[in-house]
From TrEMBL:
Protein's name in the database: Threonine synthase
Superkingdom, taxonomy of origin: Bacteria
Family note: Belongs to the threonine synthase family.
UniProtKB keywords: Lyase, Pyridoxal phosphate
Record organism: Kribbella lupini
């Protein structure tokens, strides 16, 4: 595996905040910060390592109402907020009492990331990747995507005034195609599924100079953005960690970084380092991690995706083995649900809490319901679920399920006759 092809660029002091090095998640070997994403010793994935100073709750609370309030905990410079960006984060944590009562839970919260600038959690990771792209002197902002990332990259690039090139499977949902193309960057439809698109992106990243593929060759910096979900959940709960969290799994990066975020908060003394369980949610039509978990395997066997939850349709998830590690270490579970259950999950969340989620959120809600029914999740423990995106992006999933209850003439008599009083 080659590293990024790039021309020499001087990285300024403090470009990556309190980040001090890159560390291999497989063998632990350390390397310098830079445009690197694979370990030179074992080809394992790299992630950012830090030396944190003393950080206080008051310091964080005084920051802006977006992810940059956590700048000291991210691989970004102190002046990151001064550069044009979409300023994502600090989304609602909703007390989901109605859904909790219906499912028999004592306390349930929904972290609603549909409130981000392009209506998904991907705005968080893209903002972190954009900072790294700028600091590394790279000129093209790019990604392979199942949809939400495409939206976020195109929007962030437009805001920052940088060229974007986004690669998607040609059969992606039409709303996600439109909400990417509208930003004016270069959108490329590729014949094949996401894994084919990702392979192409990796090849381009290894050959083209100055191309920053956010989830390929700047992935160590990109993925750190997901930690802000953990930071916000803890802060919004009054600086404590919930007992259980249910998270959708595509590549698996979001789940592993939420775990990393909780761990860092505990080590820094910003929260009490209490135990918690992390659960992963997949659609049955693309559930390689759930299958590996059930089988007791440490290796995730790739599959060909076949599900309506296209934003989770990654058949060869890069972080799959690490998702297994987190679930097993924390006492959680990786479970999957059918497409029928996904649609029911979308409708259940909308009916009980007024939140219209995309198919990934339907997977999460349906998995929560299944975990309770099968006794794998404690109904008495405080639980948070992640709504990663807006239902307007996946309208086709429920289009044939909802609509007018009745059609009547424009008269009061017709209203009465229809029994609508």
């Amino acid at each position: 595996m080659s590293q990024t092809a790039t021309t020499p660029h001087t990285i300024r002091e403090g470009a990556f905040g309190n980040g001090t090095h890159l560390s291999c998640r497989a063998c632990g070997a350390k390397s310098e910060l830079g445009p690197f994403y694979a370990c030179m010793e074992c080809f394992g994935p790299l992630e950012v390592g830090y030396e944190f100073p003393t950080i206080t709750r008051e310091q964080i609370e005084a920051g802006p109402k977006n992810i940059w309030r956590y700048q000291p905990l991210l691989p970004v410079p102190v002046d990151v907020a001064s550069y044009p960006n979409t300023e994502p984060g600090y989304t609602r944590l909703i007390d989901a009492g109605n859904l909790a009562r219906e499912l028999g839970l004592r306390k349930l919260w929904v972290k609603d990331d549909s409130g981000n600038p392009t209506h998904s959690f991907k705005d968080r990771v893209v903002a972190s990747a954009l900072s790294a792209t700028r600091e590394l002197g790279m000129k093209v902002f790019a990604c392979p995507s199942t949809g939400n990332l495409a939206n976020a990259v195109a929007a962030a690039a437009a805001r920052a005034g940088i060229r974007s090139v986004v690669f998607i499977p040609k059969d992606l949902e039409r709303p996600k195609i439109i909400t990417t193309a509208v930003y004016g960057g270069t959108l490329v439809a590729v014949e094949g599924n996401y894994d084919d698109v990702n392979k192409l992106a990796s090849e381009i990243a290894g050959e083209e100079e100055g191309w920053a593929f956010v989830n390929v060759n700047v992935r160590p910096y990109y993925s750190e953005g997901s930690k802000t979900l953990a930071f916000e959940i803890a802060e919004q709960l009054g600086w404590r960690i919930p007992q259980q969290v249910v998270i959708p799994v595509a590549s698996g990066s979001q789940l592993t970084k939420i775990d990393k975020g909780f761990t860092e908060l505990g080590k820094l003394g910003l929260v009490d380092a209490t135990d918690y369980k992390i659960y992963g949610a997949q659609a049955t039509g693309c559930s390689p991690v759930a299958q590996a978990f059930r089988d007791g395997h440490d290796v995730v066997k790739p599959v060909k995706p076949d599900t309506i939850a296209k934003s989770l349709a990654i058949g060869n998830p890069a972080d799959g083995p690490y998702v297994l590690d987190v679930a097993r270490r924390t006492g959680g579970v990786i479970e999957d649900v059918s497409d029928e259950e996904v649609v029911e999950g979308i409708q259940l969340l909308a009916r009980t809490e007024g939140i219209f989620t995309e198919t990934a959120g339907g997977v999460t809600v349906a998995t929560l319901k299944k975990l309770i029914a099968t006794g794998q999740l404690d109904p008495e423990a405080e639980t948070v679920i992640i709504n990663s995106g807006d239902g307007l992006k996946t309208l086709d999933a429920v289009a044939d399920r909802v609509g007018p209850k009745v059609t009547i003439p424009a008269s009061y008599d017709a209203f009465v006759k229809a029994g609508l009083q």
